[in-house]
Amino acid sequence: MAHSAFSLHELGVTFGLADRSVVAFRDVSLEAEAGQFIVLIGPSGCGKSTLLRTIGDLLPASLGLVSVFGTEPRSARMERKISFVFQDATLLPWRTVLQNVQLPLQVGGWRKTGRPNRSPEDMIALVGLSGRENAYPRELSGGQRQRVSIARALVTNPDILLMDEPFGALDEITRDRLNEELLRIWREIGTTIVFVTHGLSEAAFLGEKVVVMSANPGRIMQVVDLTERKPGNRIDRSSAEFFEIASELRTILHRAYGEA
Amino acid sequence: MVSSLKNWLWPVVGIVSLLVLWHAAVVVFQVKTFVAPSPLAVVAALWTNRWLLLNNLYPTALEAISGFALGNTVAVLLATLFIHSQTLRRMYFPAVVIFNTIPIIALSPILILIFGLTVTSKVIIAAIICLFPTLVNMIRGFEAVSASELELMRIMAASRREVFFRLRLPRSLPFLFSALRIASTTCVIGAIVSEWIGARDGIGVLIIQSTFEYRTEVLYASIVTSSALALTLFGIVALVEAAAVRWRTN
Fold it and tell me: Domain residues of chain A, as ranges?
């Protein structure tokens, strides 16, 4: 049995006050092993982004238990075990590529954590932006900016990387390429990734474990384990197996949307 | 080089055309010099009264620049306080707004009663006139951070201090500079208005004296001098801005 990356037990998040409260999701129980690539997919309003933020301690849980590497999310965050990639790259425009990637090492008491960091230059090379270290964000394309934000997330050598629809705003070809590169990076550094998307083929391509959620109220509908069907989490996008996985996910998603 | 020449050409042509129109009006309608001098008479007055003007420019510039520094510093500190304490903001921001409704011309005698005919009262007036636009702009600037930027700082376990210095402060710089541009010209107005109410020297005093003595060309020369001061301050702010917020321009 591999080490657990996170474990959710009957987790629920509710927004607002008692009489006018909105349930983001409830009764979510899920386990992830360290090093796994988990994809959360579902219609909007199913609480997938909220769930991601609860794991990262950006939002508090209302009910149930979350544990990230055996501790509360808050300790995991304060110990800098967690990194987050947002839908917009969220680069600071007054900092160069290199300075943006260095940011996580300059704040939040990084040195006191005693964690080994990765070299910012290496991370920029890993995301394929060598030579652009001194460029400013406005000089980069949308895809390049998102690469920088991935390099920034990896520089702290996180135990878990949370990604909230990171390629949602990009065109399809750029997204395909970045998906392939993300898998290459994941293999190279072996961190746990939780990836939120509403893209079906993205989910089928990336996930070792695809968690399908439905809305009203948000909850887990089905967990599809693909580890055996995608050995080494590798699959050819034009293979029959890929189409089979995608159409299976499609059927489940149709049910999830139907209930929404 | 060619494009910067083009940028300068049209404003210069515009201003020169207005001066020509002014001169023509004075000549055609045979306006007396004590009523309104021609631009040439003003230029002549600038030269003949150059020492008088410079001697009076010095205290005005000192008051304006000190007031600019004081008013904007207080504004930035207040804005910093207000974004960190919602309670303080709710307690004192309305008071600042009410204070801002007091006409500056009425505030001047109050300060002269307290501080006498010193430079201090003028500096404070110039500071007060700068304070409000900068305060409002700085609060907006400090709050011009996106939800995901704040989440990014949180996931990195950044302290409030780090959020302020690494995120809010650089974000607010464009807002600060647009406020400083306003303040660079209003601080001169503040200094001059306060000199009207009571002072021994300064461009404001010169304006009042030359008016009473019907030395209209000196009045106009004083106005040109105060405009030159305000434009110089504006230019300095613009230069510093270009160097400080280079990331914003393409």
Answer: 88-157
Structural domain count, chain B: 2
One DSSP character per residue, A228-257 reads TTSGGG---TTSHHHHHHHHHHHHHHHHHH
Interface ipTM > 0.95: no
Alpha helices in chain B (DSSP H): 2-28, 39-48, 50-84, 86-100, 104-115, 119-142, 147-155, 160-162, 169-197, 203-212, 216-244
The model's pLDDT over B87-107, given as tens digits with 9 standing for 90+, comes to 999 999 999 999 999 988 888
- Picking from B148, B157, B162, the nearest residue to A90 by CB comes out as B148
pLDDT per position as a tens digit, B182-219: 999 999 999 999 998 888 899 999 999 999 999 999 99
Q: Which two tokens stand for residue A8?
A: 């959710």
Q: Does A88 touch chain B (CB under 8 A)?
A: yes
Q: Which domain range does residue B140 map to? A: 34-248
pLDDT at A175: 92
Same domain? B74 vs B139: yes
Bridge partners of A13?
Answer: A25
Q: Which of A:224-243 have CB within 8 Å of B?
A: none
Question: CB-based contact (8 Å) between B166 and chain A?
Answer: yes
Phi and psi torsions of A27, nearest 5°: 50, 40
